[in-house]
Write a structure and sequence with these properties.
The complex is a heterodimer of chains A (243) and B (445). Chain A is α/β, with parallel strands linked by helices and 243 residues long. In chain A, 49% of the residues lie in helices and 18% in strands. In chain A, the strands form two sheets. Chain A has a seven-stranded parallel β-sheet with strand order 3-2-1-4-5-6-9, with helices on both faces. Chain A starts with a strand and ends in a 5-residue tail after the last helix. The two termini of chain B are 26 Å apart. Classes of the chains: A alpha/beta (243), B alpha+beta (445). The structure holds flavin-adenine dinucleotide.
């Protein structure tokens, strides 16, 4: 049986992906800090899809533990989905270094640490798939979330380099850039209609992109257009904008 | 942050804090940190103000399925799980919901709190009939289990209790065994009210029965209707092609009505046209066919947001039941009133209920009629008049669809109301759970 490892398995997109891969015949390894939540998610996936699910403790910031974590997994997963992230509070992070540090470490350093290990292992065995959830926020720094955005920009560049390195080794790397995502927890919030995807929809497009070995996807595709345009705005003008 | 929230009939609209929870811990935290009254909301498919208040707990993210016993057909799940998700899981294994309302887009918690009924009420009773056990969380974040055996008073007050006993967290209930996902459907035309009553009573042997009634007919045509009967199809009754996949779950082909229609589209003329088209689709007097469960149980689910057809002002659904002996007379009186006012209803659904013993649930032996009315000037006064007729004949009005009745109509219609309120005092002592409906009807004052 094929397995998918999901790092940061309590986020909405992660949960939706766990269901989507299980529906398509994957065993699932859920990894996150909080085990009590994982258990109920695991039970739900098992009942609905009749696929085996295991739960594992994983802390993105505890770099020392990452080797051991990978080694101890009961099965080598064919697919690793890196879905953890920390949005944090931009304003707080501007003056409180701990907040800034946590945003940067979680979104970039933590991801680089664990994916270094996964990449090495996949390279050695000559196959495997890495999926990284980055963000459209990484396309251009904006005053409202540049701490998060710059960490995600770093993560996007990391994934692109990884793809470049592993392509020849038969290892696939997929970068996912979600725009607004409407989750059950944001239900009722006024997210702009046509720009907002549902997490189930995002999961479906991730699975499809994985199957067809896409490199980078935007969910929804309209975000690709939006970001293209945002990137084209000259910096002299951009700096005066309120974004 | 406050936002505008409304249920299915787009009336009333309230500004409220929406507080979603995904895990028990999160719910407990919300309960402990909120001083103000709360009410739980599932998928907001109740029509009126039952799931509304200034602070609304949203159970939608709380939607894990805990177990499914495929041998015995018992499901155990959290309250935010939706019926359409359950069907996807259970139908391929040869099981079906024991009771389902006319939409699959409701949560299991909502099914319990309104103690919903389906087209099989005369055979299988309401939803609560099939519950093995419930778990609630009370106002201070403690878990409380109840069933017919354990805390039976709490169980009785929770089924049909409109969320006022606490947050229903887990529900364990029995499913119905089926051989296929198809329904053997028979439809029969009825010229008038006497014919349709006769047909209902003759056909009580059928598992499912419901009639669509054309409210614009008068005189000798009053009560012109089509009765729809159904049985779960047996495997050998299916055409060859379907026998290959007898438990197929129909693929969803959903279209959405993206915005509110202007309200003028629903004048009596358009209603008449709709009725005519519907009625004449069936040319013979009787028609038999085999259809998938989706069109049979959920004909409106294929048009997402059909409620927007009624425009921005919204609409109300009026559903009442009359005791069997009074049903004929009461129904005639009400249909005549509707007729003379040209308050024509887009959809009117008639059904004969079976016996029901319960504390506060809606059904009772007799006929129930559900009508939609777009909100126009004078409507509420008109509905008060209808209430008087319903009360005169000893009937009652369905709480989950109500947004406007006066307290007297509630207290008169539900003979166990005081008993129910006493149990609420015991389990909801600080009135932590309260809704606009509960306040409007003086249930919690
Ligand atoms: C098209 C359509 C057809 C329908 N057909 C039928 C029918 O045939 N028969 C029938 O009986 N009903 C019918 N209904 C009504 C519907 O089934 C009920 O209103 C049902 O309760 C809605 O469930 P919900 O999950 O949307 O709950 P909501 O509408 O969100 O809430 C309904 C009530 O349940 C309470 N509640 C919800 N979840 C919880 C919880 N976890 N704990 C405590 N209280 C809770 C709320 O406080 C509220 O009082 C129909 C509705 C529609 C829109």
């Amino acid at each position: 049986m094929k397995y998918i490892l999901i790092l940061g398995a309590t986020s909405d997109i992660a949960i939706a992906c766990a269901h989507e891969f299980a529906r398509n015949g994957y065993g699932v390894q859920l990894a996150a800090r909080k085990q009590d939540k994982l258990k109920i998610i695991a039970q739900d996936i098992e009942v609905r899809h009749k696929m085996p699910v295991t739960c594992h403790t994983f802390d993105a910031l505890d770099y020392e533990s990452h080797h051991e974590f990978w080694k101890k997994l009961p099965h080598r997963p064919e697919v690793t989905l890196c879905a953890f992230g920390y949005l944090g509070q931009q304003e707080k992070g501007q003056t409180d270094w701990r907040e800034a540090w946590q945003i940067i470490e979680t979104n970039f350093t933590g991801a680089a640490s664990i994916l270094n290990i996964v990449a090495q292992s996949y390279e050695e065995q000559g196959r495997g798939s890495i999926i990284g959830i980055s963000s459209v926020a990484g396309e251009r720094g904006r005053q409202s979330n540049y701490l998060y955005g710059s960490a995600k920009a770093g993560f996007t560049a990391y994934l692109s380099g990884l793809r470049n390195r592993l392509y020849k080794k038969g290892v696939h790397v997929l970068t996912v850039k979600p725009g607004f995502v409407d989750t059950k927890m944001t239900e009722g919030l006024d997210l702009p209609g046509p720009l907002t995807a549902k997490s189930e929809q995002v999961a479906k497009s991730i699975y499809k992109a994985h199957r067809s070995k896409k490199d980078v996807i935007y969910t929804l595709p309209v975000w690709q257009l939006i970001m293209q345009n945002i990137r084209l705005i000259p910096e002299g003008i951009f700096k005066k904008m309120n974004l | 942050m406050k936002k505008k929230i409304t249920n299915w009939s787009n009336y009333p609209v309230v500004e409220a804090n929406l507080l979603p929870f995904r895990y028990e811990d999160e719910l407990r935290q919300l309960l402990n940190s909120q001083q103000e009254p709360l009410i739980t909301r599932g998928n907001g498919r109740c029509y009126g103000d039952a799931a509304l208040g200034p602070n609304i707990l949203s159970s939608l993210p709380f939607n894990h399925i805990l177990s499914f016993n495929e041998q015995q057909g018992i499901i155990h799940c959290e309250a935010g799980v939706m019926l359409d998700e359950l069907l996807e899981l259970i139908v391929p294994k040869g099981w079906f919901l024991p009771v389902t309302p006319g939409t699959s887009f409701i949560t299991v918690g909502g099914a319990v709190a309104s103690d919903v009924h389906g087209k099989n009420h005369h055979k299988d009773g309401s939803f609560s009939n099939h519950i093995v056990e419930l778990e609630l969380m009370n106002g201070v974040g403690e878990k409380v289990r109840c069933s017919r055996e354990e805390k039976a008073d709490l169980f009785a007050a929770t089924c049909g209790g409109m969320g006022l006993t606490g947050v229903i967290t887990k529900v364990k209930f029995r499913l119905k065994k089926v051989e296929s996902s198809f329904i053997n459907q028979r439809s029969v035309k009825a010229k008038n009210i006497d014919e349709i009553f006769g047909l209902f009573e003759q056909n009580e042997g059928y598992t499912y029965s419901v009639a669509w009634i054309d409210c614009l007919q008068k005189g000798k045509d009053l009560g012109r209707s089509v009765l729809m009967l159904g049985e779960h199809a047996k495997r050998e009754e299916l055409p060859n092609r379907q026998q290959m996949h007898p438990l197929k779950v129909p693929a969803s082909k959903k279209v959405s009505i993206p915005f509110n229609f202007p309200s003028f589209t629903l004048n009596p003329l358009s209603v008449q046209a709709f009725n005519f088209a519907y009625y004449n689709k069936m040319l013979g007097n009787e028609k038999k066919d085999i259809v998938s469960y989706d069109p049979f149980f959920y004909p409106l689910d294929s048009v997402l947001h059909w409620n927007r057809m009624y425009g921005k002002k919204g609409f109300v659904q009026y559903q009442f039941v009359l005791p069997l002996e009074q049903s004929r007379q009461g129904l005639i009186e009400i249909l005549e009133k509707i007729n003379s006012r040209k308050m024509g209803s887009f959809l009117a659904v008639l059904k004969l209920f079976g016996e029901q013993e319960s504390l506060i649930s809606f059904p009772m032996r007799g006929y129930t009629l559900a009508l939609d009315f777009p909100i126009v000037n004078g409507l509420f006064e008109f509905l008060d008049e209808l209430d008087d007729v319903v009360m005169k004949y000893g009937g009652r009005i369905y709480l989950t669809k109500d947004a406007r009745m006066k307290p007297e109509a509630f207290w008169k219609g539900y003979p166990n109301a005081q008993k129910w309120v006493d149990i609420l005092k015991k389990y909801n002592p600080d009135q932590k759970f309260n809704s606009l409906l509960a306040q409007r009807l003086n249930i919690i004052s």
